[in-house]
């Protein structure tokens, strides 16, 4: 029985890798094709995740910049289309980074302490101790809201899903992510923060990265998503 369960887990892991090639804003796909405003990632074909949260790839995992810019009204609800079912357990997080003056969105690399978090997710557990995460097993990522107070301008928008099924071992959490070139319109005069660098914001030993989900299933509210607090505007 145990062997059979292990085999099933392994088979699931192979099929489960995914990429996020298209942004959806208020229910509408804003890219006419994959990797249009979203920067094509190095795993576009392999779908392989990143296991080292301090590697340079943790920022955007990008193979190339994108040609286009997507318009995202402040206050809108966003998610990404996933190429496969997001069937690993783990949180979905979103970050924004404003392009510095003098830099161009279609070529800026997102370096420096420029990233703030605008969304994260937590697990829930049902009466039979079965744990699920928002959008788990869907062909899309969980929703987030771009805070209405976000100032107008050009940003990189970063989506991240952290697969925690093997995360009780060091450097075995898997990061699936992408960055999209976006122009935020109709925004406010907020001061987003805290601002962090990527890489820099995560360590392999963060309690939300090196984590035993069997323990989280006993107390789902104790999960600590890695990175800074969410800026709500
Ligand atoms: Cu996988």
TrEMBL record:
GO-annotated molecular function: metal ion binding; monooxygenase activity
Signal peptide boundaries: 1-16
Keyword presence, Disulfide bond: yes
CDD domains cross-referenced by the UniProt entry: LPMO_AA9
Main location: secreted
Keywords: Carbohydrate metabolism, Cellulose degradation, Copper, Disulfide bond, Metal-binding, Monooxygenase, Oxidoreductase, Polysaccharide degradation, Secreted, Signal
InterPro entries noted in UniProt: AA9, AA9_LPMO
GO biological process: cellulose catabolic process
Family: Belongs to the polysaccharide monooxygenase AA9 family.
EC code(s) of this entry: 1.14.99.56
Reactions accelerated catalytically: [(1->4)-beta-D-glucosyl]n+m + reduced acceptor + O2 = 4-dehydro-beta-D-glucosyl-[(1->4)-beta-D-glucosyl]n-1 + [(1->4)-beta-D-glucosyl]m + acceptor + H2O
Region annotation (Disordered) ranges: 35-54
Known cofactor(s): Cu(2+)
EC class (word): oxidoreductase
Cellular component GO terms held in the UniProt record: extracellular region
Protein name (record): lytic cellulose monooxygenase (C4-dehydrogenating)
Source superkingdom: Eukaryota
Residue ranges annotated for the Auxiliary Activity family 9 catalytic domain, each copy included: 17-218
Biased composition (Basic and acidic residues): 35-45
Gene3D superfamilies: 2.70.50.70
Cellular location(s): Secreted
